[in-house]
Design a protein that fits this description.
The protein has 24 helices and 24 strands. By secondary structure, the protein is an alpha/beta fold. The chain folds into four domains: 222 residues, Spore Coat Polysaccharide Biosynthesis Protein SpsA, Chain A (Alpha-Beta Complex); 60 residues; 190 residues, 3-Layer(aba) Sandwich (Rossmann fold); 176 residues, Glycogen Phosphorylase B (Rossmann fold, 3-Layer(aba) Sandwich), CATH 3.40.50.2000. It starts with a strand and ends with a helix. The model has no long low-confidence stretch (mean pLDDT 88). It holds the Pfam family Glycos_transf_2.
C-alpha cells in the first residue's frame, strides 16, 4: 500500500493486519510512505516488531509512483512468478482470513493473472437514506456491487483497494501509469482501471473473488454532496484520459454527442428544479459534473492520449530487427506518439521485455495465424482464423497505425493483411535484402488487399529497399511514401574507451598485447560464424597471438564448439553467449568481423565503427551499403576464404592503418548513424502519415 498522511486510519488497518491468518508460505507487507507530513512515520515504526513489514519512502507525491517504487523492491527479491502481489489502501480494513482467501482463489485459477476482491463500506457516520440509490457507489467510494458473483470479471471492475496481481505481470514489465490517480492534489481518476484495462489488452484475464474482503473507511465529509460531485468531476477527467482518440466525431475537442447530452442534462435539471424533485435534481447535477470534468480535461488538462503506433512483426528470435523495433518506439515517444511492441513468444523475449519495461515500453504477446509465412498447408484455415479471431485481438490494441517489420521475404505479410482487414493504416520497415520469389494467384490477390492500406515503406539500406521493390512493386500503392532510414547507434554509449578495453580484456582473460578479432552476431546460418573460425585457423600461423571472440548465442553454438575443438583452436576462441551490454565488449576488439551471406544492414558494424574499431564485412547487400566507400572499414570477398584471410591479415599487420580506420569510422558513425540523426529521419517519415 501507499500512504500519505494516513495516521488517522492506519491504526485500525494495521491492527487488523496483526490479526491476519498467515498463509503456509508466509507473507510480507510493503508500505510506501508517500511524503507524509503527519505522524505516519512514527506510527509505522511502532508496528515494526508486530508485522512482517518493510517501510519504503517516495517523496514525490503520487500513489502510482509509490506503488511502482514498491514493485522495484518486490522484483529485487527472488520469488515465484505466480506469487501474488496484493494491493490495498491505508483506509481498507481486511477480514482475518483475507490472505487465505486470496491464496485459495489464485490457486484455483492458475490461468488468471488479475484478481479483484470485495470492497464493503465502513461508514464513519450513516449516510443519508436518499443518497445511495442516486450515486454510483463504485465510482464514488470504490465499493464493489453486492450482486457481483465470483467468476471472470470485466477488468474495469477490479479496484485498487482490494486487488491482486501475479508477480509475473510485473516481471514482464508492466507498471502503474504515474499520470493518473491520487497525487496529493486534484487528480484524474482511473489509477487501477487504466492499469487493469491495459493488462486485458495484452491478454491477461481477470477473476472476481468475493470471499477476499476489505472494509473501506468512508469519512463523514465523503457523504456530502460537494464531495460526491467533485468525485464525478474527477471521474470525467479520468474518462477523457482513457478514451481512445478518433472514436467519435468531435466538436471543440470533445465528442459531438456529448454536447447534446450536456444540453439535455441542463434541461432535465431545470425541470427537476421546477418540480422540486431533489433526487432527480442531484442525479442530473452528477451527470453534469462528470461532463464538465471531461470537458475540463480536454481543454485544460493533460493532452489527449497520443495516437498509438503498434510495432509488430513475425519475430522468431531476439536480433537486430527486434532491437530496431524497440528503438522505433523510443523515436515515436519522443515525437509525441504512443508506441508499443507486439511480438510472438520467443527465446529471450522475457528478459528483453523486462529491460524495456524500465523505459516504460510495453511488449505485448501477439501471434496471429500465419498463412503467408512458412508452409502453405492449411493456409485457408489459418487465414479464416486470423480474420475471425486474431482481428479482434489486433483491434483491442486501439492502434492508430500498425508498423509491420519484415524480417524476410513474406514474414510480415499475414499481419499486413490482417491490419487491412481491420481497416488500420500501415507502414512497413524492411530489415533484409530479400531473394526473389514468385507468388501464386492466391497470394497475389491477398497481397493486393494487404498493401492497399500501406501509407509508407522504409528500408534500412538501399539494397534492402531495392530488393523489396523488385518483389512487391505491383502491389504497392503509388501514394506510399518510400525512404531509406539506416539503423542507429547510440554514440554516447558506443565510443572508444581505453578503460573499457582494459576491463573487457581482463574479463575475457585475453592478454593486453594480443590481437583480438570479434564477431558480435547471432550464431546462425545467415551470419556464417563457422567461416570466422576457419579464418582464425588460416591466420594463426601468421599471428600466433590472435584470438577470436564469438559474442552471441544461437543454434550453431554446439557445431561451432565441435569445429573449434577439431581444429585445435580451443585456447584461442572465446564463446561469450548473448551479450546484453555490447558496448562493454566492442572497444576491446582490434577488429570486428561479419562474415554474413546476406544482411539487411548490420548493426554490429556501425557499433564497431562508433567504438573506433575497424569494421570488416563480406561484400554482400546490407554490409556493402555501409562499408562501400567508407574509410571506417573494408569489404572482403563473401565466398573466397583465402582472399578474405589475406585482406584481414594485411589489416591486422598494420596498426597505423587500423588506428586511422577506427578514427574515420567513429566520425562516420557520428555523422550518419547517431540516434539523433536517424531519429530525425524517422520523425520525418511518420510526419503526416497518422
Amino acid at each position: 500500500m501507499a500512504t500519505r498522511d494516513g495516521a488517522a486510519t492506519l491504526p485500525q488497518v494495521l491492527d487488523a493486519y496483526c490479526r491476519l491468518a498467515a498463509p503456509p508460505d508466509g507473507w510480507r507487507l510493503l508500505i510506501v510512505d508517500n511524503g507524509s507530513k503527519d505522524d505516519t512515520a512514527a506510527l509505522l515504526a511502532s508496528y515494526a516488531d508486530r508485522l512482517p513489514m518493510r517501510r519504503l519512502h517516495e517523496a514525490v507525491a503520487g500513489k502510482n509512483r509509490a506503488l511502482n517504487r514498491a514493485l522495484d523492491d518486490v522484483l529485487a527479491q527472488p520469488d515465484a512468478d505466480d506469487a501474488l502481489c496484493i494491493f490495498t489502501d491505508d483506509d481498507a480494513t481486511p477480514d482475518a482470513d483475507w490472505l487465505l482467501q486470496w491464496q485459495a482463489c489464485a490457486s484455483a485459477h492458475p490461468d488468471h493473472s488479475v484478481f479483484g476482491g470485495a470492497i464493503l463500506p465502513d461508514w464513519a457516520a450513516p449516510p443519508p437514506a436518499w443518497l445511495l440509490p442516486l450515486i454510483p457507489t463504485g465510482l464514488t467510494y470504490g465499493l464493489t456491487s453486492p450482486d457481483l458473483a465470483d467468476g471472470p470479471v470485466f477488468p474495469g471492475l477490479v479496484w485498487g483497494a482490494n486487488m491482486a496481481v501475479r508477480r509475473a505481470v510485473f516481471a514482464a514489465g508492466h507498471r502503474f501509469d504515474v499520470g493518473v490517480g491520487p497525487n496529493g492534489a486534484e487528480y484524474a481518476m482511473g489509477s487501477e482501471t487504466e492499469f487493469t484495462r491495459r493488462l486485458a489488452m495484452t491478454g491477461h484475464r481477470a477473476w472476481f473473488c468475493g470471499a477476499a474482503r476489505v472494509a473501506h473507511h468512508i469519512r463523514p465529509h465523503q457523504a456530502g454532496i460537494d464531495y460526491i460531485l467533485r468525485k464525478a468531476w474527477r471521474f470525467g477527467r479520468g474518462k477523457y484520459r482513457q478514451e481512445p482518440p478518433g472514436r467519435f466525431v468531435e466538436l471543440l475537442d470533445v465528442p459531438r454527442w456529448m454536447w447534446l447530452r450536456y444540453l439535455l442534462e441542463v434541461a432535465a435539471l431545470g425541470r427537476a428544479m421546477l418540480a422540486g424533485d431533489a433526487g432527480r435534481k442531484f442525479s442530473h447535477r452528477w451527470e453534469l459534473a462528470y461532463l464538465r470534468g471531461y470537458f475540463h480535461e480536454a481543454w485544460h488538462g493533460a493532452p489527449r492520449r497520443q495516437k498509438t503506433v503498434l510495432v509488430s512483426s513475425y519475430s522468431g528470435e531476439l536480433g537486430g530487427m527486434e532491437l530496431r523495433m524497440a528503438q522505433e518506439v523510443r523515436y515515436l515517444q519522443a515525437a509525441g506518439y504512443a508506441g508499443m511492441l507486439a511480438v510472438p513468444q520467443f527465446d529471450g523475449v522475457t528478459g528483453w521485455r523486462q529491460r524495456l519495461a524500465r523505459e516504460q515500453i510495453t511488449v505485448a504477446e501477439f501471434s496471429p495465424p500465419a498463412f503467408f509465412e512458412g508452409t502453405w498447408r492449411w493456409r485457408n484455415l489459418r487465414r479464416w482464423r486470423a480474420q475471425w479471431f486474431a482481428a479482434g485481438r489486433l483491434l483491442a490494441f486501439k492502434a492508430s497505425l500498425v508498423h509491420v517489420a519484415f524480417c524476410w521475404t513474406t514474414y510480415g505479410a499475414s499481419l499486413l493483411w490482417l491490419a487491412q482487414r481491420c481497416r488500420l493504416p500501415t507502414v512497413i520497415s524492411v530489415h533484409n535484402a530479400f531473394p526473389a520469389i514468385r507468388f501464386t494467384s492466391w497470394h497475389a490477390r491477398l497481397l493486393r488487399q494487404a498493401f492497399s492500406n500501406v501509407r509508407g515503406i522504409y528500408a534500412v539500406s538501399d539494397s534492402a529497399l531495392a530488393h523489396f521493390l523488385e518483389i512487391y512493386r505491383p502491389f504497392i500503392p503509388p501514394s506510399a511514401r518510400l525512404a531509406v532510414i539506416p539503423n542507429p547507434v547510440d554514440i554516447a554509449l558506443f565510443r572508444p574507451s581505453p578503460a573499457v578495453q582494459l576491463q573487457a580484456r581482463k574479463r575475457l582473460q585475453v592478454p593486453q598485447q594480443a590481437l583480438l578479432m570479434g564477431v558480435v552476431a547471432r550464431l546462425s546460418e545467415q551470419k556464417r560464424p563457422d567461416m570466422a573460425v576457419d579464418m582464425l585457423a588460416v591466420l594463426r600461423g601468421r599471428f600466433p597471438d590472435l584470438y577470436l571472440v564469438l559474442a552471441g548465442g544461437g543454434p550453431l553454438e554446439g557445431a561451432l564448439r565441435a569445429q573449434v575443438a577439431r581444429l585445435g583452436l580451443l585456447p584461442w576462441v572465446i564463446f561469450t553467449g548473448f551479450v546484453e551490454h555490447v558496448q562493454e565488449l566492442m572497444p576491446a576488439l582490434d577488429m570486428h568481423l561479419l562474415m554474413s551471406r546476406n544482411e539487411g544492414f548490420g548493426i554490429a558494424t556501425i557499433e564497431a565503427m562508433a567504438c573506433g574499431v575497424p569494421a570488416v564485412a563480406t561484400d554482400v547487400p546490407g554490409s556493402a551499403d555501409i562499408l562501400r566507400g567508407s574509410r571506417g572499414g573494408m569489404l572482403i570477398p563473401a565466398n573466397d576464404l583465402a582472399a578474405a584471410a589475406a585482406a584481414v591479415g594485411d589489416l591486422l599487420a598494420d596498426p597505423a592503418r587500423r588506428t586511422a580506420m577506427g578514427r574515420h569510422g567513429r566520425a562516420e558513425a557520428v555523422a550518419r548513424y547517431s540516434s539523433v540523426v536517424v531519429g530525425k529521419q524517422v520523425r520525418a517519415f511518420y510526419d503526416g502519415l497518422l
